[in-house]
Each structure stands twice: as C-alpha cells, then as structure tokens.
Amino acid sequence: GDDARTSLDWAGTYKGTVPCADCEGIETEIMLHGDNTYMLSTKYLGKKDSKVTNSNGKWNWLDGFKIELEGIESGPSKYFVTEGRIIQLDMDGKKIEGVLADKYVLTKVK
Q: What pLDDT is recorded for position 76?
C-alpha cells in the first residue's frame, strides 16, 4: 500500500520549535537516517543555563505513517511522518489537538 514509509523521502533533518510548559519553546532538531538511527537535539529557550541536549538511538515504524524514537523516557518519542514534515504526537501516540496543534510540526531542512 501507499504509506509514508514506502512513498515519501523521509530520511533527513527536521527542525522546529515546539511549545514548552515552563519556557519559551523547545528548539528541536531530529535527523532520521536511512539505517533507522536518529540524532535528536533539543534546547529549552528562555531558561538560564540552557544547554543543547543530544541523544541518539534507533527508531522504528509503528505503522506506515508513525515512527517512535527508542530510548526517550522523559518526553515525546512518537511522530507522524508526512511530506516534508514530521509532527510530534502526544505521549499516547495521538495527534495533538487544539490551538497549539500546528506548533508541533518539524519541517525538513535537508
């Protein structure tokens, strides 16, 4: 069937700033590699002593459109893959609804 896994050029680097409960936003960059490994870089904006945090590991397809980054315990790890973008999902793997929904999009930059 036609799904993101087979029909999209999903490998690459995605960037965006997602909402944060106690800061100005979380600057997020995710590199998805064709060998099912990832590198995740985050920075909490507007916090004192905010450092860039890097993590990496393996990722897996949950179905033809959703992926999960392995090894992430303290934050969201599931994303919906679409053309040129990945969309952060909630902790249960569901699309985030409401006025901030469009703020959870990371756009492919390369």
A: 87
| pLDDT score recorded for residue 9 | 92
Task: Give DSSP secondary structure letters for the chain.
Answer: ---HHHHS---EEEEEEE--SSSSEEEEEEEEPTTSEEEEEEEEET-TT---EEEEEEEEESSSSEEEETT--SS--EEEEETTEEEEB-TTS-B--STTGGGGEEEE--
Residue 84 has pLDDT above 80, yes or no: yes
Contacts 24+ apart (CB under 8 A), 57-61: 59/32, 60/36, 61/5
Rounded to an integer, the average pLDDT of 13-36 is: 95
